[in-house]
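Teaching assistant here, posting this on the class forum so everyone can see the example we discussed in section. The complex has two components, and the goal was to see what a joint structure prediction looks like when all of them are supplied at once.
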Amino acid sequence: MAFSPLLQQLITSLRCLPGVGPKTAQRMALHLLERDRDSARQLAAAMLDAVERVGECSRCRTLSEEPVCEICADESRDHSIICVLESPVDLMVIEQTGGFQGVYFVLKGHLSPIDGVGPDDLGISQLIDRVEQGGVSELILATNPTVEGEATAHYIAAQLNHCDVRISRIAHGVPVGGELEYVDGGTLAHAMAGRRSLRSES
Amino acid sequence: MAFSPLLQQLITSLRCLPGVGPKTAQRMALHLLERDRDSARQLAAAMLDAVERVGECSRCRTLSEEPVCEICADESRDHSIICVLESPVDLMVIEQTGGFQGVYFVLKGHLSPIDGVGPDDLGISQLIDRVEQGGVSELILATNPTVEGEATAHYIAAQLNHCDVRISRIAHGVPVGGELEYVDGGTLAHAMAGRRSLRSES
């Protein structure tokens, strides 16, 4: 071992971060110790703070240190439109587009019987209760366009068959700025099937 | 802002790590909070521990929480051969090859008048004192093969002109496993100039 025990321990601990292998961990540890000890102190404090105090919003299940998150508590938003997502990152990404004024519901995962993830783990009954209580006009199912994401979306839609609520799925198609040449067959088939008229429909 | 303040603060703090941009920081923060809170606690503790307790070895200037690092304190190593390096990472890399049995001296940088880095910042006088005190048979200058690294090596060699000590520079040449076709001209010129006889010299 060429490093001191404390340094070795820091390197090992840094590897819990996603995408950080042994070389990157080494570089990060040395950077923190050689050039940026103040930032390291701040980072450690922010990490402990967040780990101890961030829980989940009781309404939408996203990460939040308040019992109800900022978005759910915001009266100016349209609480009748709920966008259903797989993870808090997706929420952030949609918020950053700035175009959605409704509220969210975060499943924190997708149905995956093989991993033992069922509807209860995703809070689907909580979502259905909320729709059944009324006041919801549309549910936008924005789970990922993967097999599991699709299955989860279809499961939720099926559970709400009896409710008078509009249920939609985000569009699949060619990404903006992409080239048809590089788009896979499945996406292209979806894009063709989901084509929209350019003339305004009368 | 779509994230809670604590989460936002964690994301901002993570960006002090080298190679971590906004997207990676987001992914790291959510990974820690959603899946790995125990590791986050450990990482924060390791970080604080290292930042508070790791200083530098009084003999070789590498990072160490002891006044004298493990390598300098190791009596079984050859203390008459000193390998001079730019950074503690280089020390680690050489240690991992397992082939060097001498000791090290870490400059923590290279001469760079433009950034205000002079010989005193690199502990060069400490190195020269050590050589002048005797007991050193060889100084291997293993600074990086960059303009600054070369200048630093030549400066140290010039300062030790009056001492009866062997001063060597690591070899420049074609990397093992590389192909000549992809090697740059400067390296190739060094490799030609530094060629060695395959027959044992008589």
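For the discussion questions: The longest helix of chain B spans residues 37-53. The mean pLDDT of chain B is 88. Think about how each of these relates to the inputs above.
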